Input
Amino acid sequence: MPFDGTPVLVTGCSTGLGLETAMYLGARGFQVFATVRKPGDEDIVQVAARDHGARVKVVQLDLTRADSIARSIHDIVDQAGGLYGLINNAGIALRGCVEDLTNAELRLLFETNVIGTFGVTRAVLPYMRRARRGRIVTISSVGGRIATFGLSAYCASKFALEGFGEALALEVESFGIRSVLIEPGIVHTSRWDINRGNAVGALDPRSAYAEIFRRHEAVADAAVERSRTRPSDVARAVHRALTVPNPAMRYVQQCATSWGAPLISLFCCGAICRMRSSKGCTSVV
Ligand SMILES: NC(=O)c1ccc[n+]([C@@H]2O[C@H](COP(=O)([O-])OP(=O)(O)OC[C@H]3O[C@@H](n4cnc5c(N)ncnc54)[C@H](OP(=O)(O)O)[C@@H]3O)[C@@H](O)[C@H]2O)c1
Output
C-alpha cells in the first residue's frame, strides 16, 4: 500500500466522526495518531483500534490549551519523524438564538473550533513545509456555507473554517501541501445527544425564542433520524482527500437520498442549489 505507515493526526477521536476516521485510516495502513481531550478516554480508542485491526496511537490534546497542542505535536513528530496529514476534526456545537447566547459560550466555541484549529495547524505546518508535502483536511460542515435558525454561533465558527481552509490552500500550495475542506451534512453522532451544545438560555422559558427554538430542534431531530449519511461516509471522504493525487478544495458529504423534507426545511432550497453548484465543490456520495 502506497501510504503504509504514513503518519497522520486526527483530532477529537473519543467519539463520532473522529473515532470512525481514525479507525478507517488505521485499518488502511496509515500510522494514525488519534487525539482525545480527556485522558480517561484513551481506552475507548485503544479498544476500537484492536477491534478494527487499526494502527492507532492515542495522544492527549486539548484544543483550548496552547501548551497541550505544542506538547502533543512535539511528541508525535518525535515518534513519527514527521507528519503527512492533519485531520482537523475536533469541535463543539452551540445551539441557541443570538439573544440567548453569552460571551462565555461564544468564547469557548471559538477557542475550540477556530483558534484551536489554527493552533494545531500552525504547529504541524513547519514539519510539512520541511518535507515539502502534506495534507490539512478540515472537517467543516454544510453549516459552514448555509446558516440555519438557532445556529448563528456554530455556523459562524464553520464559516470561519471555510475562510481558513481556502486561504490556507493558497498559502501552502507552493510547499507541496494541500488544504481540503470536508462538509458533512447531518450525521448521527453524539453531537446530536450528549454533545448537543444547547446554550443555557436557549430553552429558558423567559426567552422570547424558547418556543420557536424548541420547534426547530424537533425538526432537526427528525432530520437526524432520516439522515442516511454515516460516519464511514465522512471517513471515506477524508481518506480520499489524503490519498488522491489532486484533491478537490471541498467534499460535500451528504447522501443524496437523505435530503428529506425535514432537512429542506432546515436549509432553504436556494442555498442548497448555490452550494451544490459552487466552484470547486465535489460531492462524493
Ligand atoms: N455529526 C454531524 O452531524 C456533523 C455535521 C457536520 C459537521 N460536523 C463536524 O464534525 C466534527 C466531528 O463531529 P462529531 O459529530 O463527531 O461530534 P462529537 O461526537 O461531539 O465529537 C467531537 C469530538 O471533538 C472533541 N473535542 C471537543 N472539544 C475539544 C477540545 N477542546 N479539545 C480537543 N477535542 C475536543 C470531543 O472530545 P470530548 O468527547 O472530550 O468532548 C470529541 O472527540 C466536528 O467538527 C463537527 O462540527 C458534524
